[in-house]
Amino acid sequence: MKVLLIAALAAAALSHAPMLHAQTNWKLATGYRAESFHTQNVMQFAKDVEQASAGALRIDVKPNNELFKLNEIRQAVQDGKAEAGETIMTSMVKEIPIAGADAIPFVVSSYEDAKRMWDLQRPLIDKHFAQRGLKALYAVPWPPQGLYAGAPVRSSADFRGTRMRTYNQSTIRIAEMLGATPVDVPMVEVNKALASGKMDNMITSAVTGVENQVWGQIRHYYEINAWFPKNIVFVNLKAFDALKPVVQQAVLKSAQEAEARGWALSRGVAADSTGELKARGMKVDRIPADFEAELKRMGEKFSREWVRSVGNEANNIFVPYYIQR
Question: What pTM does this model have?
Fold first, then answer.
């Protein structure tokens, strides 16, 4: 009788073993290449979550628009088609205008400024995400946007009569305010446009310049740090709430680590890319102080216009941001 009882208890334990070690599987969609430092950071985040949760949660990262296109990812996660995702915050501005704060030109000028901006922006993002059944985990900036020019730049007068590459409404406005003619040129066609004389200057990051090997056609790069656009990683709130508290804490702790690591990676990528431009013979410099002050005044104008377009909520970012400056 005792033997039968022990056998029955053992069978019951075995039948419940899968429940004790049940694993939850998430898919995380991102629009960026696997080689991108953002994607590498997301993949490390997924590994950290699996380790911190003792295997209770496994996150399968799907890069390069494999699951959804970049601009579709937020809605897909909101609809529960994927449990988590990463996208650039500016892709959400139609639904969540406050997400565009980090792309207002000439407001932030350093990683420290960008972090203060994110600290002020985060509570508002959290509020809007919660209303849509989403939860923000962390955000990481791209390297800052710099100025590429075919000839030396000393003031806004140097742009008059030139043609500037533009790719959104902000860059069109910048070109017009500087007296340049806006020219719509896809990044993959930049070298061709430079060679043919279709464009003379552009604003983009050192990383993008290296990826497109622009040094063959353009000689000057100015570290104007025009803006620091951020990527954000987020989850479906129902999927997060379904996790056990200890697993939720593993996700949040890993996200905090991923944010700190991602900002450091961004700094490193920016420095490495700028160094590569120098090594390729480009002249890397800062713009004169008078011109830098002029760009900052433009930034204040851009931010006032943005606050008017977004509404009072935007004051929760820019009023304390300028007071702390």
Answer: 0.87
